[in-house]
Write a structure and sequence with these properties.
Elements lengths: L1 H19 L4 H26 L3 H9 L5 H9 L3 H19 L5 H20 L6 H22 E2 L2 E2 L2 H17 L5 H6 L12 H23 L7 H15 L3 H25 L1 H19 L5 H20 L6 H28 L6 H31 L4 H25 L3 H17 L3 H22 L1
Antiparallel strand pairs: 1-2
Helix pairs in contact: 2-3, 2-4, 2-6, 2-7, 2-8, 3-5, 4-5, 5-6, 7-8, 7-10, 7-12, 10-12, 11-12, 11-14, 12-13, 13-14, 15-18, 15-19, 16-19, 18-19
Length: 463
């Protein structure tokens, strides 16, 4: 009997600890994205109130109610008193905005502290990690893109509150990740909109470039591989089931999870199918808006979710087959080509009694490696700069791929021409004899440098 009681006590303790423990990383990220949305709305409400724009302040002060249910649910399990204090603080902000009360600044500060505490309670120690903050920032950037697209059309402002939402979401993302690109921040410099407005396509390109920069770090928080689109389908199925039950809140929560997963795999989807990427982006905004309406437009949300699933299903059914082995093969192939030439040069010098000059081959080869690293960095910077400037990423990658393929064909033809042993030996002898005849040690180093650099540059282009 004592064993039974002991087992019951241990079970109860385990359940209690589970209730108090931080949420799983993926769930925590999704809830904290909502917390940061609320903090962004409060930021906008405070700035509008300070400028005497009370109607807009009241609009932003009312928005947190849309995201409170999942926050409330997660926080109540861990600290009911903190949950009650948060709800009271948000009510105080809403009432101050409605009453045009200057004390709204103090009310916002109180609510903001409660939200920061909620983040720590829900996410635990993970809340301060670079990966977690990057994941939350990526979610906010995605939301900022959607809001900006609804705010600006044909160079004109059509919805000021959505513009301010985009500004506030970007501002909170930059608090979480201060290294976010300055060009992106310059696109929305202040909460008060003023012309000229950045085109939504340009803003989206800037956001996409920044999310790509955060992808490696944020994926660790989600535990999601960049090409793991299966999680997207699961989130859509959850949302669809909630819509069938006419549970708009649960459907919206599932769409929030979908947004979080989407930030990790959208680059992969875009590379596989630009059309599918564009349709999903549009349908995601439509589904979110339909579920946020009062009352929720469940029919429109169902159509959007169904369309997203239709677009993504073929990509899930036919995943990419490349991986680390394919990447290694590129390096092995290019390395062997360079090694073939360097080894032949060394062997020729030894055979002709010039072994003392082999050090120059090593100098040339080493310099080629350094130059290859430099060209790889330069290519990476060029790609990033082009994306930030709004260049078509697929066009840029396609042009680079064609150039790399042309180099591959050229090298294949060149190697085939030298595949005969006599032809190969003659080629090496001619190059080396010319350098030795001029007593040009620099010439030998240059031959080795070009051999290594050519293959290194090809490798950088392929990657």
């Amino acid at each position: 009997m004592r064993r039974v009681w002991a087992l019951l006590v241990l079970s109860a303790a385990a359940l209690g600890l589970a209730a108090c423990a931080p949420a799983t990383s993926r769930d925590a990220v999704n809830v904290v994205v909502r917390i940061e949305k609320v903090r962004a709305h409060l930021l906008a409400a405070r700035e509008d109130a300070a400028a005497g724009r009370w109607d807009l302040a009241a609009t932003h002060a009312a928005h947190p109610a849309e995201d409170l249910q999942p926050i409330d649910s997660a926080l109540a399990k861990r600290d009911p008193q903190a949950d009650a204090a948060l709800r009271a603080a948000l009510i105080a902000v809403r009432e101050a905005a409605s009453a045009h009360d200057p004390a709204i600044a103090d009310a916002v500060a109180t609510a903001d502290r409660a939200l920061e505490s909620a983040t720590r309670l829900i996410a635990g120690d993970a809340a301060t990690s670079e990966a977690f903050r990057s994941a939350v920032a990526s979610g906010l950037l995605e939301l900022s893109t959607t809001e900006y697209g609804e705010a600006v059309s044909d160079g004109r402002l059509v919805a000021e509150s959505e513009y301010q939402d985009a500004y506030a979401f970007l501002t909170r993302a930059r608090v979480l990740v201060p290294t976010i690109d300055g060009d992106l921040a310059a696109a929305l410099p202040r909460i008060a909109p003023s012309a000229p407005f950045v085109a939504p396509e340009r803003y989206e390109a800037l956001v996409d470039a920044e999310k790509d920069a955060l992808a490696d770090s944020s994926a660790a928080a989600y535990g999601t591989a960049k090409d793991d689109t299966g999680a997207l389908i699961a989130a859509l199925d959850t949302s669809s089931a909630a819509i069938d039950r006419r549970d708009a809140a649960a459907a919206a929560d599932a769409m929030t999870s979908f947004r979080g997963e989407w930030t990790q795999v959208e680059a992969f989807v875009k590379a596989r199918s630009p059309d599918a990427y564009e349709h999903v982006e549009n349908d995601m905004a439509s589904a979110t808006a339909a579920l946020a309406a009062h009352p929720a437009d469940l029919a429109a949300a169902r159509d959007a979710v169904t369309d997203m699933r239709t677009e993504l299903s073929p990509i899930v059914a036919a995943p990419a087959t490349y991986g680390i082995f394919d990447a290694a093969i590129i390096l092995l192939r290019e390395g062997l080509e360079a090694l073939l030439i360097v080894a032949a040069l060394l062997a020729f010098l030894t055979k002709t009694g010039n072994a003392s000059k082999r050090g120059w081959i090593a100098v040339g080869g080493g310099t080629g490696i350094v130059a290859s690293i430099a060209i790889a960095i330069a290519i990476t910077i060029a790609f990033s700069a082009s994306e930030s400037a709004g260049a078509d990423r697929e066009l840029l990658e396609g042009a680079t791929g064609l150039f790399a393929a042309a180099m591959l064909v050229y090298m294949s033809v060149w190697l085939h021409a030298k595949s005969n042993l006599a032809s190969w030996n003659r080629y090496i002898k001619e190059k080396s004899d010319a350098a030795l005849a001029r007593n040009s040690l620099f010439g030998l180093a240059t031959i080795a440098f070009l051999a290594v650099f050519r293959e290194g540059a090809e490798t950088a282009l392929f990657y």
